[in-house]
Design goal:
Elements lengths: L4 H9 L5 E4 L1 H9 L7 E4 L3 H10 L3 E6 L4 E6 L2 E7 L1 E6 L4 E5 L3 H5 L9 E3 L5 E3 L3 H6 L9 H7 L2 H10 L10 H10 L8 H13 L3 H10 L2 H4 L21 H9 L2 H7 L4 H16 L6 H8 L1 H14 L3 H11 L10 H6 L7 H15 L5 H6 L7
Parallel strand pairs: 2-5
Antiparallel strand pairs: 1-2, 1-8, 3-4, 4-5, 6-7, 8-9
């Protein structure tokens, strides 16, 4: 059940005002019974009324977006986003000026796609103003009203359009008219914040059919206006080839230019580092050198991904088998530390790192012999 006892408690606390679940939590539950972590509640109560009633009920309330009618209720350690029904007064492609309403239909008109405008009441009855249930059943991404109008309200909807095509396992079925509208509006993507763009691009790469969607984004000038590259060889890669790869590897294959991809987005430092390590493993891998020694220096998981990437980009199945061999291999840990050198009579100094580095290099070159071998390599003499 999507409507939990805790949600009912919130609904009841806001009486006599009406509340319904809306958006992604309803869509995902109706599609495949997924219970979303993000619960959005639409209500006829004004934001101040919501805050007053929930506080009176002993709940913690955070005014996260009062200007847009949104407050967050934290109940039993779980956040619920509660937004007053709204209609747009003015939009500029990034943000909207809204006024509050008590009409669910008016609220639905400002939403992007038909299956995102499904409202569920306390009895799990669903109100569907725009045929969203049918579109969801047939995996159709359909704008509410005119695509041009919806996009002009918020240009991020262009990226959301592509992202939702990757939500379903079935092949993406693009509407030609939608693509024409998107092409005509693509230049406006430059107005969007890099943070919002980054979030959507990553979600697109994580979804189904990311290769085909990336190509459509190129055809509609979306990538060009986001300064994102496309790999010219992408057309030679079979549909579904990227299915089992993490999004970072998909990004490498789809773009063909990881440096520009990273530069054009605002990724967390840890993800930038990981992507650069994958790129390094792809470019430095040499099939003439020992596989396991390379895995040690380039990173075990990095080289596994690099081989999977090369299996696709070079159409070489042998790389895939090598990746499988590495997955079944446990990468060893260098069995010598500075403590071992001190125990052997060395005094703590920067020299210890140099000695360890030299022994480690030889240890790898000799295919990871046991610790005794490493100890035997500790230099004697002046300590």
């Amino acid at each position: 059940m999507l409507i939990t006892p805790d949600i009912l408690t919130i609904f009841n606390s806001l009486k006599p005002y009406e509340c319904r679940l809306v958006g992604g939590c309803v869509r995902d539950y109706l599609y495949n019974k997924t219970i979303s972590e993000d619960i959005d509640i639409a209500t006829t109560a004004t934001p101040q009324t919501v805050m007053d009633l929930l506080k009176n009920a002993g709940m913690h309330v955070v005014p996260t977006g009062l200007k847009h009618g949104t407050v967050t209720c934290v109940y039993r350690n779980k956040p619920y986003e509660i937004t007053t029904l709204r209609r747009d007064i003015e939009t500029n492609g990034r943000h909207a000026t809204v006024t509050f309403t008590d009409n669910f239909y008016e609220d639905s008109l400002r939403r992007d796609f038909t299956f995102n405008a499904l409202y569920m009441d306390h009895n799990q009855n669903v109100t569907d103003f725009h045929g969203g249930l049918n579109d969801l059943q047939h995996k159709k991404i359909k704008f509410i009203g005119h695509a041009k109008h919806r996009i002009e309200e918020d240009y991020l909807r262009i990226l959301r359009y592509f992202r939702f095509h990757g939500k379903f396992e079935e092949p993406a079925n693009f509407n030609d008219n939608d693509l024409k509208v998107i092409s005509s509006q693509a230049t406006h993507l430059q107005q969007l914040s890099i943070e919002r763009v980054t979030m959507e691009v990553v979600k697109i790469l994580k979804g189904h059919h990311s290769l085909e969607i990336w190509q459509k984004m190129a055809e509609t000038q979306v990538l060009k206006n986001l300064n994102l590259p496309i790999n010219p060889a992408l057309q030679n890669i079979g549909s579904g080839a990227l299915a089992n790869l993490p999004w970072q590897a998909r990004a490498y294959i789809s773009t063909g230019d990881m440096d520009l991809f990273i530069k054009s987005l605002r990724l967390p430092n840890v993800e930038q580092k990981q992507m650069k390590q994958i790129q390094k493993a792809v470019t430095r891998y040499n099939n003439q050198h020992d596989l396991y020694q390379q895995a040690y220096w380039l990173g075990h998981q990095n080289l596994i991904l690099a081989l999977k990437i090369l299996a696709i980009t070079e159409n070489n199945p042998s790389h895939k088998q090598l990746a499988q061999n590495l997955q079944n291999w446990e990468c060893p840990t260098f069995p010598l530390t500075g403590k071992d050198l001190i125990k052997a009579g060395f005094k703590p100094s920067p020299q210890l790192g140099q000695i360890l580095q030299k022994i480690e290099t030889e240890w790898v070159a000799h295919n990871f012999p046991p610790q005794k071998w490493c100890i035997d390599q500790i230099p004697q003499g002046d300590k």
